[in-house]
């Protein structure tokens, strides 16, 4: 074997070429090692089809793999041809992407903010109320402040947000809900489903909750998980139950996140379960803090992680407090005229 090093010029830059020749000199192989210019670097970054190597240019647009973000294709045929080579790594990457989305800390709970004072709504449903006229969930502090203003000015009782007259009874409130449901309001649709669920009409509850879930309502997803867990109106289905729990958890539903932790502890172990409970604690979940306390005693959670969860929980709870809310009496549940 003979080898020789030569200095040469490749694309205007001094380079080194390594020539490897066999004894017969019948064949040779050249390996070019060169430093790319800025233009060459940009060209190397051009995205190409993973199957046929065609580059994405102005008139050629590539489509991403349906499951992962690793490769792109110029056609369905190329995707099918490349599938045997790509399948294993695609499955692995798709699982990673699902976990990244699942374990991302939501910016807020599913409750969101009060539309009047713009403070986060408490997780306790007794500290806020949904208005049937506009489907807005208003905190008790704003409800009470508006009640006192109307009482002082001797005004008629109206919604503190949209100023429509409050319903005079359950029948009128139901008509308001139906009107909002016809406008594809997911909260109104979910509330109608909840009424049917409370009445034992699980089939109708399933229909309303399915529609609300399709519109992105986290509570509807949680309700569907209950139906699949208990087999109410549907066949018991653990896979669909977990699917809806994940959808609700990603949207900031603390109880869904807590239940996912229980499921993971049973099936995958404490590591993934603890991740769920820490996320729920950061949303203000008392249930999650309680179970994390036990995990800390058992040595399943580090002192640092438990302390971080405690601080996150307290910060979430404190964010929902205000002097106006603290001064307001407890709401009378099931009514939109809260105080006499």
Descriptive report:
There is one protein chain. The chain has 340 residues and is mainly alpha-helical. The chain is built from 13 helices and seven strands. The chain has helices at residues 38-44, 76-102, 140-152, 170-182, 186-198, 202-214, 218-230, 238-250, 254-267, 270-282, 286-297, 303-319, 323-327, and strands spanning 2-10, 13-21, 28-33, 63-64, 72-73, 128-130, 137-139. The strands form three sheets. The chain has a three-stranded antiparallel sheet with strand order 1-2-3, with no helix packed on it. A two-stranded antiparallel sheet has the order 4-5. It has a two-stranded antiparallel ribbon with strand order 6-7.
What order do the SSEs take from the amino end to the carboxyl end, as H and E? Answer: EEEHEEHEEHHHHHHHHHHH
Task: Outline the biggest β-sheet.
Answer: 3 strands, antiparallel
Radius of gyration: 30 Å
Order of strands across the main sheet: 1-2-3
Strand content: 5-15%
What is the CA–CA distance across the termini? 101 Å
Structural class: mainly alpha
What is the percent of helical residues? 40-55%
- The outline comes out as globular
Count of helical segments? 13
On the 0 to 100 scale, the average pLDDT is 85
Low-pLDDT runs of 5+ residues are 1-44, 333-340
Assembly category: single chain
Q: How many individual β-strands?
A: 7
Short description:
The chain is mainly alpha-helical and 340 residues long. The chain is built from 13 helices and 7 strands.
